[in-house]
């Protein structure tokens, strides 16, 4: 099975680590959409990370459109508005496009770092 998964990733030019991050984001979204309001402390406890890291995961989930929520930094809570109930082809294509964009950006950053290292 893992060979098949790796082949699918390779055939679609997807990085295994990037896909793993997206899958973790989906898992975080399950937590976020189980409650209308959840404290940063509760998110951190469930994710087994500190509150700052938990907030960063929430921000990433919101940024890529996996969850529609707002963060109240003063109250240290996350309020969920809506979520995707089903991940359809449109959402997969959107994620693919975002991963390709990230891949291109990371490649550019890597090129800059390589050039700076050579200098």
Automatic annotation (TrEMBL):
Domain of life assignment: Eukaryota
Residue span(s) of domain PCI: 1-85
Signal peptide: none
GO biological process: cytoplasmic translational initiation
Record's GO cellular component terms: eukaryotic translation initiation factor 3 complex
PROSITE patterns, A to Z: PCI (PS50250)
InterPro entries: COPS7/eIF3m, PCI_dom, WH_DNA-bd_sf
Pfam families on file: PCI
Entries under PANTHER family matching the protein: COP9 SIGNALOSOME COMPLEX SUBUNIT 7/DENDRITIC CELL PROTEIN GA17, EUKARYOTIC TRANSLATION INITIATION FACTOR 3 SUBUNIT M
Family from the record: Belongs to the CSN7/EIF3M family. CSN7 subfamily.
The protein's name in its UniProt record: PCI domain-containing protein
Native source species: Hyaloperonospora arabidopsidis (strain Emoy2)
